[in-house]
Sequence to fold (600 residues):
Amino acid sequence: MKNDGGANPDVQQVMRRLTRIWGEFEGRLRSVSIIADAHAGRIRLSDYRTLLKDHYAQVIEGSGWISRAASSVGRPYLEQRSLFLRHAVTEHRDYEMLARDYAACDGDPADLDNARKNLGSMALSAWMYHRASQPNPFDLLGAMFIIEGLGQWFARSFADAVTGSLGLNETQTGFYRYHADHDPDHLAELEAVLGSGVLDIPEVADTLIETAAVTARLYVLQLEEVGHYG
Amino acid sequence: MRTAYITGAGSCLPGPAISNDAMEAYIGTLSPVHSRLGRATLRHNGIQQRHYARTPEGQTTHSNAQLATEAIRAALLSARCRDSRLDLLCTGTTQGDLLVPGFASAVQAELGIASLEVASFQSVCASSLMALKHAMMAVQTGQSEAAAVSGSEYSSRWFQPAFYADSYRDNPDPGIEFLRYTLSDGGAAVIVEPEPVPGRRNLRIDWIEQRSFADRFPNCMYAGTATNQADALPWSVHASPSAAHQAGAIALKQDFKLLYELFPVWIGYYLELLDARGLHPADIDVFLPHYSAESLGQEMKRLLQATGAMIPGQRWFNTLSERGNTGSASLFVMLTDWLNRADPKPGQRLLCFVPESGRALAAFMHLTVV
Fold:
């Protein structure tokens, strides 16, 4: 095992606080009704379709707020800006995957054109755009840690649960499985960008933690409100 | 408040050490598919040998209470503590020999020591730390002058083929086979007193902390119900114990996927504790986890490193691979082995970690060698 002697303590401290928020967040996910019901074999295909549609409506905003964040980044942080830009591209791929899953679950693709954000997604999206509009919004790295952590720790068990409960195949759970397979490398990327000087900006560490905590709470809200549009 | 010290430790690992090749003579075989799942488990858990409180012919050599008793006898000897000094007995186990009454009563009866207060703690791997915390507080508050604390398990009785519903032969479950090929039998104990024993090394108990996450997770390791769904019937409300048995409500089970989800929550708690206690991994001389470094996933190691919380591998002390996973006894088995092998030095700081998948709790203990 590698000794952590050479690591950056400021980065480690932020990672530690983020991981604590993640642990609290992940613990809450299991008791959200759509997740608990999927594990208990108590959901129908229509419930899963609603979840896919709600995620579609939310994820389609993802490339929007990330691009907004990229445009809020100024000199001398141009390297970090390109990181946001790369993420905007991957978010774009996300909603295409959700659309394929939706169609594979007998959903009418036309539904997605009119898909509305649920009550929680409205709050989450508004929050993300708000933060993304601030100058040099590196606190959003905290939000990205929470959202991408879902892929690493949570997506596979959820995909397995709905697969088992509804007799689905891989083409119907592509979005969750893709994230389970591809998100684990985000940790190194986050460490690198945290170590690139952004933590020297006054108060950015505390704001980053706060943004992660708020994002985690709103993400849970978005799952609690699946199917509720006001 | 007084300070509590561990003044002695001992273990009882019954019979000879049983190798991986020989273990099926003790737990039996269900089918080639079950055995294949078992071999996969052994590759993962790294256990090389273990002990069983039974013969290959199926004769029980030690009850659970006898395992605890022999361990307490060894611990009393190591603390040079006469029976008459003892005034408190706290036991931890996953499941006693009997459903009723409490396990500590059975252990006191086996010990044959008079005038004891007893406390029975039933949980899973962390039950012995719950018992130790009770003893620690009793000693600290002047309510006990010498307490014996045991952790013990007779796990292998659960794993006999006839313990499973008939239908289990045709429906092997990786979670059940994981437990059959991971858990084994043994007891271990410590003695807690308000003064260190002169002429030998003692362990000061600095703190024991535990947190349960049962508010947010279903059962992960459990027996007494067929599934971990909310509507699954407890064994005791089936028409009869034999009906419960055939419904699969008796077998000991593990929900593997859920187990994976518990790690980040345990790590979150560990990080919180480090911060709350102002503890730095570099300050820990010895880390005794009820978990082997080999089976800690790469992702977990990576997360611990990224958060500056990884205790370097050379400071991990763990005898799971040679002693087997003895559940609630495991931590005290490791402590006993460490005290006997390590030549403890005054001032050394030990951090013990016991995750309990049962319904998602984790316990930590900090000790200092005096």
Summary: Chain B has one domain: 1-212+259-370. Chain B has eleven helices and 13 strands.
